[in-house]
Amino acid sequence: MILQAAGFPSPIALAVIAGAVATMGSIVVISLAKLDRRWMGYASLVVEIALAVLFAYVVSAVYAVYSSPQLTPDAIAEGIAYQRVAAGVLSAMLFVAGVSAISYYFELSRRGHE
């Protein structure tokens, strides 16, 4: 549609990329949470940065769709699709941050701190 002609990937392609990064990142973070908290923190940071860059890219696609001079109903539908991808990336970021926070809480509660 509008952005595919400009070189942006489709919303489906971005959703697949976001899902792959989020799934593999979550598996790594959860696995490292059981082994070593320090490396879990590093992995969590890398996954969060990758998802933040992807989120910024998708948000720029949303802005590009809605700032085009030919705002047709098809363009609005495309913008909504990109917004859904952005919401998915944001929820993946919050999931990884939540897993990290819960893991640190369990570590503190196991040591007897509160």
Automatic annotation (TrEMBL):
It comes from the Archaea. Keywords: Membrane, Transmembrane, Transmembrane helix. The chain crosses the membrane at residues 12-33, 45-66, 86-106. This is Uncharacterized protein. The lineage of its organism: Archaea, Thermoproteota, Thermoprotei, Thermoproteales, Thermoproteaceae.
